[in-house]
Design brief:
Elements: E1 12-17, E2 20-28, E3 31-36, E4 56-63, H1 64-68, E5 72-75, H2 88-98, E6 102-104, H3 112-121, H4 127-161
Antiparallel strand pairs: 1-2, 1-5, 2-3, 3-4, 4-6
């Protein structure tokens, strides 16, 4: 189970929803700013997976406790070892300037994780998407290998049973 540690202004908050993670950025006094498609609400469970159907999302400032609901969360500044976090004052100014705006949304290229990593690091990235793509490619590769192996073994069997024998 993820560890909870005291969040600081500018920290990335990873919320564990059923089937995926939702991301927000902590802005102080118990509040976070996050990118939320219409299906993204605390306690929505698997219905939040419907976010794949939306092409826009609203930037919201809400209490961390309201965003998390009954789900588990943790501070996860996942790219601190790779990138220098932005100055906290600049980050807060940018985050607050976006509250109330509707932004383009895509599960694969402009999701809530892309939003918060762009705010914190100036780099829009999503480990969920990377993991899903790599996992999907691995499944596809195994499937193709199984299909190819199955076709070759069937082809081999056919050639043995359908071959013409000149000598017995």
């Amino acid at each position: 189970m993820p560890r909870k540690k005291k969040q600081k202004v500018g920290d990335l908050i990873e919320v564990f929803r059923p089937g995926y993670q939702h991301w927000a950025i902590y802005v102080g006094d118990g509040y976070v700013i996050h990118l939320a498609p219409p299906s993204e609400t605390a306690g929505a469970g698997s219905s939040s997976l419907m976010s794949v159907l939306y092409d826009s999302a609203l930037v919201k400032k809400e209490r961390l406790s309201d965003v998390v609901g009954n789900d588990v969360y943790r501070v996860n500044n996942l790219l601190d070892d790779e990138y220098e976090p932005r100055d906290t004052n600049l980050l807060l100014k940018k985050a607050h300037s976006l509250v109330g705006q509707t932004l383009p949304f895509s599960v694969f290229s402009r999701n809530c994780e892309h939003f918060v990593t762009d705010l914190r690091y100036g780099k829009s990235t999503s480990s969920q998407v990377t993991t899903a793509v790599i996992g999907g490619l691995a499944v596809l590769g195994v499937g193709l290998l199984a299909l190819t192996t199955g076709l070759f073994s069937k082809s081999e069997k056919r050639s043995k049973t359908n071959s013409v024998h000149f000598f017995d």
